[in-house]
Write a structure and sequence with these properties.
Blueprint (H helix, E strand, L loop, with lengths): L1 H22 L2 H4 L8 E8 L6 E8 L5 E4 L2 E3 L1 H10 L7 E8 L2 E12 L4 E9 L19 E3 L1 E5 L4 E5 L6 E6 L7 H6 L14 E4 L10 H12 L3 H17 L4 H5 L3 E7 L2 E5 L8 E5 L3 E7 L14 H28 L4 H22 L7 H29 L3 H25 L4
Helix pairs in contact: 5-6, 8-9, 8-10, 8-11, 9-10, 10-11
Keywords: Signal
Length: about 425
């Protein structure tokens, strides 16, 4: 719907933008330095000639809107600016966004032309306190002052957005977060501690508003790559594609977000999570930045502890039988997908094989595990891989039922086969009696 609306209003908005350019002059709209941001200079050793490099660190003011470590300070000032910007007023705020390589500062000013009856938002990016990495992709939005039609708080996608700017039709300024950044957080945020890291095997809550909950690890890893590159266009496209997949697979994001999830592993900014609060699917991949790190706990607040016990031999026999069935039936399903045969009988055979995989994954979920750390870790890895394989096969069935052969072919090659091979390796490492 968002893309359709964009196309419908495109022609009229181009005319509006032209009008705004005519009304704006550098003399009347150049930013005044009403903020008294302080600077600290630190001397460090320079090159072989002994030169000294001055490294500047921005010290924010009390009124600055600050985003750091997935928390925000003075969020109410930003919300108020969103409500009034461009509406016959000339309010202004400063937004400080801390990232890995420093702080990016945005001076936002509401502007209004009484003669034309038109308002807009002037954005002045400042990279003075940001140190660009050698291989970093430049964000064109930050290269020069911007003139945007308006600013919004998009709760559906979870971002504060600037619209119809000079370089971007839509720009995600900041994510909407629930965490509040205190003075102590700001002062101590440069110190590494356990609370700033996601711990595998702990339970967490996800951000209140997030759509980046992926059925596919591959999709999550692509999103994370775009996030690290600050590639806003591809971030948005990946997010919208994931929303579409979630709707297609009937994923209930609200139930997942409203309850704790178990983080089973994290690597390169992407965490695998397990939830009991999703009917069809249990395993998902989420960007680490979408996890509320201050909610971590070693024990579940919701799930009762299992008192039933089992011996290791019985466990291994059951697990080997279940994984053997999943591997066999998924292999048959892959061959069926690759055969190119079509028709009702073909679809019925594929559905039958898919159901057999589904049933065995479901039993694997409820398998009792002996109290042995090594065995518990093996089971966790095995289950999560089986879950992601099931997720991919479910997506494959949707492609098959809707005649999307090319997408099915890519899915099998890039996800189903690698996941099956991973499960096969894990199963081989679990030896039964």
């Amino acid at each position: 719907m968002k893309f359709l609306k964009t196309m419908l209003y495109l022609s009229s908005l181009v005319l509006l933008t032209s009008l705004l350019y005519g009304c704006n002059t550098s003399g009347t709209d150049s930013p005044k330095n009403t903020y008294s941001g302080q600077e600290q200079a630190k001397d460090r050793s320079g090159d072989s000639e002994g030169e000294k490099i001055q490294e500047e660190t921005y010290i924010p003011n009390e009124e600055d809107v600050i985003f750091k470590n997935n928390k925000m300070r003075n969020k109410e000032r930003l919300d108020e600016f969103v409500k009034t910007a461009g509406d016959n007023n000339e309010s202004q705020i400063r937004v400080v966004k801390y990232e890995e390589h420093g702080a990016i500062i945005y001076d936002l000013k509401s502007r209004y032309d009484e003669n034309a009856g038109v308002g807009w938002v002037r954005v002045s990016p400042d990279l003075s306190y940001y140190h660009t990495a050698e291989d970093e992709v430049q964000d064109v939005f930050n290269n020069a002052p911007q003139q945007c039609a308006n600013i919004s708080k998009d709760t559906a996608e979870g971002y504060y957005k600037l619209h119809e700017c000079r370089t971007n039709w839509e720009y995600r300024l900041l994510p909407i977060v629930s965490g509040t950044l205190s003075k102590e957080d700001l002062e101590n945020s440069n110190q590494e501690n356990e609370e700033s890291e996601v711990i595998e095997g702990h339970y967490y809550y996800l951000d209140d508003i997030t759509t980046e909950i992926f059925l596919s690890k591959k999709d999550a890893e692509e999103w994370q790559q775009y996030y690290e590159e600050n590639d806003q266009e591809n971030i948005e496209e990946a997010t919208l594609n994931n929303i579409a997949k979630g709707l297609e697979n009937r994923v209930d994001l609200d139930r997942i977000i409203s309850n704790e999830v178990l983080v089973t592993s994290c690597e390169a900014g992407v965490c695998e999570i397990y939830t009991e609060h999703s009917f069809e699917f249990k395993a998902f991949a989420v960007p680490e930045v979408k996890i509320k790190k201050d909610t971590g706990t070693g024990e579940s607040e919701e799930q009762p502890q299992k008192n039933a016990k089992t011996d290791k031999d019985s466990f291994l026999r059951e697990v080997n039988t279940l994984t053997g069935g999943i591997l066999d039936y998924s292999s048959e399903l892959i061959n069926l997908y690759a055969s190119g045969v079509s028709g009702p009988e073909y679809s019925h055979s594929a559905k039958s094989l898919y159901d057999k995989v589904n049933g065995r994954v479901n039993i694997l979920r409820h398998t009792l595990v002996p109290e042995d750390e090594r065995t518990e870790n093996q089971y966790s890895q095995l289950l999560m891989t089986a879950e992601f394989l099931f997720n991919s096969l479910h997506q494959g069935q949707l492609y098959l039922e809707n005649g999307r052969e090319k997408e099915l072919e890519i899915l099998v090659e890039e996800e189903v086969i690698p996941l099956r091979e991973e499960l096969e390796e894990l199963a081989a490492s679990v030896k039964g009696p």
